Amino acid sequence: MAETSNTPHVLKSQANWDALYFYQKSDVIYQLAFAFCDRFIHLYKDRTRDQVIQAARSCKQNIVEGLADGVASTEMQLKLLNVARASLKELREDFEDYIKSRHLQFFISGEPRYADMLNYCRYHNRLSDYEPFFAQWTDEQMCNYAITLCHFIDRMMMSFLKKLEQEFITEGGIKERMHRARTGYRQQQDERLKQLETELPRLKQSLAEAQAEAAKWKAAFENLKQRALKMYYGKEEEIKRLKEQLGEEI
């Protein structure tokens, strides 16, 4: 029997991570971190360079891996997305340390530049919105924008994780879905078997009635056939006899 729409599914739908704002912003933060390190952190003299780039990459890649693993395992998805958040926090800390160690300024609430930065980061998600500025911003600007993006990504990811948490509570993980799917399938098979077993005697009776009716029609057909043949041969004999009589008279 074909699987019905009521059968529980084991695998979940694949999330389109490129459409998620926190993934789009994570792509921005990775490229921003790379450009920042290329411009402001020495290639060989400062080990922070590799740590910043790897933390940004870990955030983005663990989002992708977590959402991909979510097809089968909500538990693994939650773990990997939280790893992405941990990498994001590490990255934010690196940018904050850079500002502190170089005696630069944090953009603070009440300043026009803070409001502009906050609005821009809130409503712009794609790399193409930020990339033109990577070669123009100062290190102070890049750090502040990076920190703000980290805050937005973290908040978005926490909302997403809360949603996944609720799904996990109500639906369970892969083992629960497998059990429900298998149990549901067996229940459908059992119900179908009972239905067939109930219908079988009725069908058997209908078949017997049809066979009896067919036998009656067969007997009637044979009777009609014999009568038709008798009439045919009788007429044929009569024609032959009349032809012989006409021949004698001539």
Describe the structure.
- The protein is built from seven helices and no strands.
- The chain is mainly alpha-helical and 250 residues long.
Concise account of the structure shown:
The chain is mainly alpha-helical.
List keywords for this structure.
0% strand; mainly alpha; 250 residues
Q: In this structure, how is the largest beta sheet organized?
A: none
Count, helices: 7
Radius of gyration: 41 Å
Number of strands: 0
User: Structural class per helix/strand content?
Assistant: mainly alpha
How do the strands and helices of this protein lay out in sequence?
Blueprint: H1 21-40, H2 48-69, H3 74-101, H4 112-123, H5 127-130, H6 139-171, H7 174-249
Helix pairs in contact: 1-2, 1-6, 2-3, 3-6, 4-6
